[in-house]
Design goal:
Blueprint lengths: L9 H33 L9 H40 L14 H6 L7 H6 L2
């Protein structure tokens, strides 16, 4: 009788943990770069010359600052999701779909290692 697997082996979990740690390292480096860019943007010396080009520059700077802030927030959320995945590895719930209770495919976890949903559950929500 061929039973469906309900969890990943310790070796498989170790493999996922290494993948997540690599992604976490890169994500944290990218977040630091975004934060540095933001702090440099905020340090621009502004004098009170109210020319039209200055107003356009300020508008572009504000837009870029907002864009960098959104990227930083998204990166922060990604880091939290990766850290939560590491917690799930430790407590034995990693790789199990929260909706179906079935094992999430290895291919999906390699592509999106912080996911908590199988592709079936993800598609069903659309």
């Amino acid at each position: 009788m061929n039973q469906e697997k309900t969890s990943y082996s310790k070796e498989e979990l170790k493999e996922f943990e290494e993948l997540i740690n690599q992604k976490l390292k890169v994500a944290k480096e990218e977040l630091n770069m975004l934060k540095e860019s933001l702090s440099k943007r905020n340090d621009t010396g502004t004098d009170n010359t109210a020319s039209t080009s200055k107003l356009l520059e300020d508008g572009a700077d504000t837009l870029e600052r907002e864009s960098l802030s959104q990227l930083a927030a998204r990166q922060q959320k990604f880091i939290i999701n990766l850290e939560n995945a590491l917690v799930r590895i430790k407590n034995g719930t990693y790789g199990v779909c929260v909706d179906t209770g079935k094992l999430i495919s290895k291919e999906r976890l390699k592509a999106v290692p912080h996911t908590m949903h199988s592709i079936e559950a993800k598609l069903a929500k659309k």
